[in-house]
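Q: What would this chain look like folded?
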Amino acid sequence: MIVHKTNSLGKNRMFSPLAVSLFALGIFWLAFFFAVIINNRYFLFGDIAYFSLPWHKALAEALRHGRLPFWLTQIFGGFPLLAEGQAGALYPLTIFFHWFLANEYALSLLLVFHFLLAGLFTHLYARELGMEEAAALLSGLVYAFGGFFITRLMQTSVIFSAAWLPLGLYFLEKYFLARNYRQLLPLAIVIALQCLAGNFTVCWYSLIVYILYFAWFWSKEKLPVKEAGYFTGILLLGLGLAGAQLVPAREFWLNSVNSQPGLSFPLLNLVTYVFPNFFGLQTPTSNYFYYGQYHYWDLAVYIGVAPLILVLVALVFRITKHMNFFIVLCLGAFILSLGQHSQGITGYLFIESFGLAILSGLGLKILLLKKENYSIVLKKIYVWLGKFLLMLFASGYLLILLGVDRVARLAVALGGGTYEKMAVWADQVVGGLQYSLNILNIHLYVQLILLFLIYWVIKGFLFGELKTRVFQAIIVLLVMFDLYYFGVGYNATTRNEQILPSVRLLSILRNDPSYFRIYNYKMPRDYEVLGPEFNLVPNLNMLWNIEEINGYAPRELKAVNELLGIVARTDIKTALPLLGKMNVKYILTTDPIRFAALKEVFHDSRLYVYENFFFKDRAFFVKHAHSQPLITVYQNNEVKIITNNPEPDTLVLMDAYYPGWKAYVDKQSVPVREYDNVFRQIDLPGGKHEVIYRYQPVSWYLGLGLSLLSLAALITLWIFNRLSNKRRLLS
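A: My prediction, written as structure tokens:
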């Protein structure tokens, strides 16, 4: 059945603008992620393979056995997976997808589903701001498929948490229109979902946006103080709902250190707002002469050429009440990103990318008003861009003409450092500019062609040569092409056969009956699609339930991090006794090692595996080493050991010490102490005993209690509000 709608101009339409807009968003999403959605292929590169995939596999296995993955034994000698948060062990959508689908496909489908959510939620919020369907669609496309989202595709928890921001702002906007705190109640759920999704950086910065948004419009509308009280209560309620995740996470942060380098947004990277590949292109599957700072995806905020022009239009006119807020938000986030931040700049770029997406939609809303002076403003915008591009290209060609030697000497004269150091830098910069400004560089021409096309399309609309619907359609299609062309390199999928290691290697490691760990010595961990040469790099061991003493995580337990730092700074031959004490039986390396204490047990064209003769058992007695404890159960959250020691002794378990581990000797609780400031030990009386270690973190029970209390409070508020509304209607 065809439904006819009437637009504001009184003309019949075959389909409603909303249906067309959502259909366009859905089709673009389907086309962009066709390999995942239709062909059932997986993302297996970068952090997805080294970080998300193994952790989500552990989560899926725990759910299938009816438990939560509180603790992992396979990395770092033990790791609090749930407390770390980024696996999203308590996130409803993660649980749902892993409950019904196989692990690899579940993660990839869950990931692309959040791109669709981000687009839909942004569209919903944009419509609440009064944008036309085309403008709302454009904002949704820019946020969900712009540089921030696409280049961070492998940082799954960032995508999961960031997708919910526009929905939170939607409920805030609804509140300001209705002035009923009932409209704020869903905001608490959104905040909780963002926290449970696992990326606390995105969650905290979202809270900042909510607070700034409320404060801005609360002050503008001169609302009573009690309104601020309602809002504060909702924020606390949202955090309380996520208490089961946040309280254990706080405990983890107090016992861990950041293992990631700090970042600062380089001012020169402003050019990437127009030419995203000016410094070369680096994707998780390739490296096209990238010579920019950090990784490409650490700095990407590209929103597309047309949206950038529309943002500049919004900057000039500022005719809606929300424009000033988002302008201040974007500028503030950009300025703050220029500083050095030990925790990275993801939060600032996240805020900036969302603000730019909304401003681009508001810019299109302004153009649709078709004022007489818009063509003059458009020319001025392009004159500014022309001057910027002229200076950029002239400076680039000048550096190329000067050559490496002169550029290096100039840098030294300006206080850049030694000539040797600056020569390396100059060689990289000049070589990079030769690549970027090369006449054969197609990426450069795509952006220039788009700049000219967009100018003539807008000009044609302003002078009446293009009808409104045609203009909107062309702008949206240009944006779709631009974002697809930009992001398609990140949409690399594969099949999990590529990460299968040698069958003979797996048989050697998995058929060893002892409890042992492996150590990856100088194993590659590159951001590329996995192939056989990358088998068993840090964390991938988890896919085959093989334990290693090292691993890969943004934050690591302090004591374990310090111990592994000592090993990493020490020659491998000198470190072998320490590794042996840490229950490391096998050393994996890409280069051969000749040493009497090592026995080669496997090698192929890519990998060498050595047995460490300094290997010590997982559990042992300090005084009576000959009385060998027997491990009968070894699971993530529980370990059972049978002992038969002739005298009182100290039983050591070479698993990481962490708050929440309890020990029971013959069902009687005994204190757990630190051994060498890293592992676990208990005092044991003489005789035969059953020792049970259980991970029972107090932080989990406190957090769960907080979540349940907050849920009860939310339900009570909702019921109270419903009853109040009924009484009001009856009266």
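Confidence is low (pLDDT under 50) at residues 1-11, 525-532.
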